[in-house]
Amino acid sequence: MKTITCLLLAFLVLLVSFPAISSAVEAKPPIIIAMSNDTYPFQFVDENNQPSGLLVDIWLEWSKQTNTQVIFKPTNWVDSTTNLDNRVADVHMGMAKTSAREDLYQFGPKILNFQSFLYINYQLPKPQNLADLLPYKIGVVRGAAQIALLQKQEPRLTFSFYENRTELLKAVINGEVFVFVSLEGFLRESQINNTISVQFPKDNRKSIAKMSFYPALLKSNEELLKQISAGFEAIPENVIDSYVKQWLGDKRYQNDIVIAMQSGVGPYVDIGADDLPHGLLVDIWKLWSEKTGLPIRFVAGNMKQSVDYVKRGIADVHLGYPESASIQTGLNRAHTIYQVTSRLFSYQQPLMSLDELKGKVVGVAPTSPYLTDLIDTLPDSEIRYYSSVSKMIEMAKKGEISAFVAAGAWTQHHLLLNQNWDLFHQFGGLEFKTDLYVLNRNKDVGFSARVAAGFQQISLAELAAIERKWMLNPDDRIYREQGGMVELTAQQQAIINNIGPIKVGYLRDWRPMEFELDGEYSGINSDIVNIVAKELDLKVTTQAFDEWQTLLDALISGSVDMVASVAQTAERQGQIGFSAPYWPSPWGLVTQYSNINVFGLDELSGQRVAVVEGYHIVRQLMQQYPDLKLVLVPHSQAGLQVVSEGKADVFIDKVVNLSNGLRNGDYSSLKMSMLVDFAEQRSHIGVHLSKKALLPLMNKVLASIDPETQKNIHQKWVAQTIEFGRDEYHKQLQFGLVIFVVLMLVVIVALFAIRHLRKEVDRRITAESKMAHFAKHDSLTQLPNRSLIEDRLEQAILLHTRTTAQFAVIFIDLDGFKLINDQFGHHAGDDFLVHVSGVLKHGIRRSDTIGRLGGDEFVVILNDIKDIKSVYEVAETLLASLALPFTLQDSEVSASASIGIAVFPKDGNSIDGLLKTADKQMYRAKHSGGRAYRSQ
């Protein structure tokens, strides 16, 4: 019995202690991993100061396989090995084997292979052997495995050592190093990548050796070596392959069109103070990129280098080269991108005649395509050659040449920058035209056609806008004669020809929108109609009307063909055609000054409300506000008059008309306020159904009217504001004081005043609530704006930090939205964005957030996610929903998006960090062709 009791006690002790034993077995201590902080793309520290890279991802996979926590300790390369030597770290993330390292460390299984190269400056010939590089010091990071390999192959090589890769690359860019050691892969910063890839082309590099990364440990740590080896053996081969493809196969720039450019030729093309390309030709190419959806990047060099880049395959295309019969590059002319005008310049004294140059010296560049023509034009002058405009300016100042010929805009740009503008004069009697060609390799015939097709999508109006930005002298602009903002096809021109003359009806006195001035159609609408008529070459006649309803009836019956400022309603939809909206038209109301301010129609129950007969809101007022007593008036002046005379309590009209009427009439007893019940509306041009074929062409013109033109039209016709003069203010102040005294004496009246005051307070609270909503929400889609998104992100970070949970940030950028605007107009683009916002809103949970950053960019916050797979499912759902077709301006369209995903806290623990990571991943999706999602 005693034996049995002992056995039972032992069993109970074992049973009670088992969880503690199990827990002790499961709770493995973390492994500290030494790593380099700048060996991109294998091991480095990203913008959020987080360890990143191919090896980091593989070690995180190892951590999951072994259920072991890992802690990364990034430093420069030398310190990373020192940390292993001093036992600050348990293992090094990955290094190549050398005989010296094998004496110090033991190595785990091979993680992956990589190639190591000597990168050689383009000015040096590619070496046949390492002995050819003896005259040059080879740049290398101190402690790199390649040093021993190179010394073994050629002991006489000399090196310049750098503490880290950043310092090495800085020396490379500064021209201190002509040969350097680097791994395969890609540089993180695009500008550095551009610079180095041009100066050190891939076809000029020399392979050092195929090497491998191995985890490295101190020789005394056998148990950890077994654990590491077992963990890597457990990782499926296809998982490592996917990481390799992500970092090395999905190249950041593999889809970019690389454009060779010559620097120092402003305003056509140059490198700015920000080290980025700028200029007229650069902007044209950027517009080409928008039209085609193909990403581009530029590589810069001198004139000869830029052509060589295309020939050698470093670049796909030349930005714009002045090829001619005398200057042949051997490349294919894909497109004529621009035409440059070259002129004759003289120093201090203007030339009156070319005869003044007989026996004189004239400077010119030896590569000028018009050189033969210049010699023929100035047979009695000595032609002297100079390499640059700056050199010719210098020689002109010294008196060594009497004049020189160069590109007009280029020369003026140079003179302006160097404050020599007033010292040189252009001679108008001599100029040469030179075409600039987009060049590509002759074998790339298909690519040449794609380039040309992209430029054909750019309108003359868009080219003219770019030209106005860069070309100071109007005489240098080649699009100035085009005049029009839209281009018409032969078919569209035939439609206009068949339409015939257009009769426009307007109100005789509806300032400032439209009115009769000296017998002529005037006002805002007249300017808009004149722009449409000019662009479409329409013949227009006009007819004035006294009443709105009569004018509207004339449009419906066909007595007139076109009327502006017509509201688009369902009732009118089948009676007339409507253009795209072209002008804002908010509503307001006018009351007597003695009345308490009114902002909403629900405050007018039982009152007499005047409105112009024929306005579309008449039906809306009758249906939604049956308690109102409507007083129909023929026009705006009549509406103001009936309120002034006490025949109506309120008059409702467009704000711009009310403002104009109050300022120009004797209505000091009236005041105006905004009407919040009706959302801001926009005016349309109504067209008789027989002329409906004009609408797409009219919309094209209306969409091309820029904000600056709209502003000028507004300032031209709206010369007054909603403020009132000082005299009126004093009168009303005195009147208010009298009312105040009366109210103080009469308690009953005071009680009524308090009641009205409470109503006013409620109204103000409502108005402030609406203002608060507008401050935090996008005005178009009503989604949270950037400010509210950042608030929600901050709350999400706090909440999920407390609960140690994850949430995801999804960055969404629409694909091809620019094409929607170009094809249908900006107002249709707004409708497109509203549709997209609705789709996105219905594609997430109520607990999540969808917001609009601006333009075509949206952000989704997915709270409390289980894993990344659940985020992928949401992204796939959103893409599928967006792809469903819908109707936009009688056309069937669908949406597409590029999506980037960031997960808290893995991809960032701050607002900026999460948004930057999601934005970066979105661009990866965009570069892969769009309609896709990407995550780290």
The helix fraction, in percent, is 40-55%
- Overall mean pLDDT score? 82
Low-confidence stretches: 1-26, 249-254, 719-730
Number of continuous helical runs: 32
Number of strands: 43
Strand content: 25-35%
Structural class category = alpha/beta
Distance between the termini: 65 Å
Major beta sheet, specifics?
9 strands, mixed
Envelope shape: flat
Q: What is Rg?
A: 37 Å
Give a written overview of the molecule.
- By secondary structure, the protein is α/β, with parallel strands linked by helices.
- The protein contains 32 helices and 43 strands.
- The strands form nine sheets. Strands 1, 5, 6, 7, 8, 9, 10, 11 and 12 form a nine-stranded mixed beta sheet that branches. It has an eight-stranded mixed beta sheet with strand order 16-13-17-22-18-21-19-20, sandwiched between helices. Strands 23, 27, 28, 29, 30 and 36 form a six-stranded mixed beta sheet that branches.
- A hairpin with a 2-residue loop joins strand 40 and strand 41.
- Helix 18 (524-536) packs across helix 24 (695-703) and helix 26 (726-745) packs across helix 27 (747-776).
- It is flat, with a radius of gyration of 37 Å.
- The protein starts with a helix and ends with a strand.
Task: Provide a compact summary of the structure.
The protein has 936 residues and is of the alpha/beta class. Helices cover 41% and strands 26% of the residues. The longest helix has 30 residues, at 747-776.
Summarize the SSE layout with pairings.
Elements lengths: L1 H25 L4 E6 L1 E2 L3 E3 L5 E2 L1 H13 L3 E6 L1 H9 L5 E5 L3 H6 E3 L4 E9 L16 E5 L4 H8 L4 E5 L2 H9 L5 E5 L6 H10 L6 E13 L3 H13 L2 H13 L7 E6 L7 E2 L5 E2 L1 H13 L3 E6 L1 H10 L4 E5 L10 E16 L13 E4 L6 H7 L4 E4 L3 H10 L4 E5 H10 L6 E17 L4 H12 L3 H11 L19 H10 L2 E6 L1 E2 L3 E4 L2 E3 L1 H13 L3 E6 L2 H10 L4 E5 L3 H4 L2 E3 L4 E3 L1 E6 L15 E5 L4 H8 L4 E5 L2 H9 L5 E5 H10 L5 E5 L6 E8 L6 H9 L3 H11 L8 H20 L1 H30 L9 H18 L2 E9 L2 H8 L1 H17 L6 E6 L2 E9 L2 H15 L3 E3 L2 E3 L3 E8 L6 H17 L4 E4 L1
Parallel strand pairs: 1-5, 1-6, 9-10, 9-11, 13-16, 13-17, 19-20, 19-21, 23-27, 23-28, 32-33, 32-34, 42-43
Antiparallel strand pairs: 2-3, 3-4, 6-12, 7-12, 8-11, 8-12, 14-15, 17-22, 18-21, 18-22, 24-25, 25-26, 28-36, 29-36, 30-36, 31-34, 31-35, 37-39, 37-42, 38-39, 40-41
